[in-house]
Design a protein that fits this description.
GO terms for molecular function: serine hydrolase activity. The protein is an alpha/beta fold. The chain has eleven helices and eight strands.
């Protein structure tokens, strides 16, 4: 009887360890051309999904609930999150701007996944990461299987430019809003980097009539899920009908009380919606 219990205990311990290892995340650097890109990887599935953070964002500042929970909901997926070049732990290099910075991120993301030997993958993109996701899905049609975005638009309007400049001075932010980014970049560099981002995003309005990726949106073929916090103060309401009209067959789900960070505020519901969409044939 003692031997039986001992063997059973050993088997249960081994099984628990196996399950635990399956969902354990691993953080590492991946060489992409001349860049060292930081990623966080969880799960052991053959299929792949890439988490794309927002402005100045990184894996842990933007996607902690997804990194920890999505591998459990997506057993046939490997869940990967990245720090885009010049953000988070993908420094150096210093972040490069210009009117092609979204396109450069999209290209780098595809090259990253090829370096990981996962050339076909899905995208979960928030805010700037949503814009990058739209571009990747439009430009690299053969690589992107499914697309999930929220807090993103294909263009910028005057009211949004005004709002961005009102937020440019991070000293006017609450300590709670500043703290995560200051931990990553330090107080001085965070203030500099955010100011650079505001100027770079605003330049699209002055030089391209606000156009981030209208052309790419028209080219998307991947099944797309648009999520939206109805009370999102960061993007104009008109972006949602525009994307629904121009992305053929796009699905839509609204969080009536949601704001910009629905994936954090409503993490459990958000993760289940994402998993359901990705698991569909």
């Amino acid at each position: 009887m003692f031997q039986f219990r001992s063997k059973l205990h050993g088997l249960m311990k081994e099984l628990t360890q196996s399950v635990s290892n399956r969902y354990l995340h691993v953080e590492r650097k991946v060489k992409v051309n001349d860049l060292d890109i930081n990623i966080v990887e969880g799960g052991k599935g053959e299929k792949s999904v890439l988490l794309m953070p927002g402005a100045l964002g990184s894996s842990w500042t933007d996607f902690k609930p997804q990194i920890e929970e999505l591998p459990k909901l997506l057993p046939n997926y490997t869940v990967i999150s990245w720090d885009p070049p010049g953000y988070g732990k993908s420094i150096p290099p210093k972040r490069k701007w210009g009117l092609d910075f979204f396109q450069n991120d999209a290209r780098c993301a595809v090259e990253l996944m090829k370096a990981l030997k996962r050339p076909k993958f899905s995208i979960i993109g928030w805010s700037d990461g949503g814009i990058t996701g739209l571009i990747a899905a439009g430009r690299y049609v053969d690589n992107i299987e499914k697309l999930i975005i929220w807090g993103a638009g294909a263009y910028l309007i005057p009211d949004e430019v005004i709002a961005l400049h009102k937020m440019k001075d991070v000293n006017k932010w609450s300590p709670r809003m500043r703290e995560p980014m200051e931990k990553v970049y330090g107080e001085k560099r965070f203030a500099e980097l955010w100011s650079e981002w505001v100027d770079a995003a605003s330049a699209f309005y002055g030089e391209r009539e606000g156009d981030f990726c209208k052309q790419e949106v028209e080219m998307i073929k991947a099944p797309t899920l648009i999520l939206h916090g109805k009370k999102d103060p960061m993007i104009a309401a008109e972006h949602i009908p525009y994307l629904r009209e121009h992305i053929k067959g796009a699905r839509y789900h609204e969080f009536p009380e949601g704001k910009h960070n629905i994936h954090l505020r409503y993490a459990e519901e958000f993760n289940k919606l994402v998993a359901q969409f990705l698991l569909e044939n």
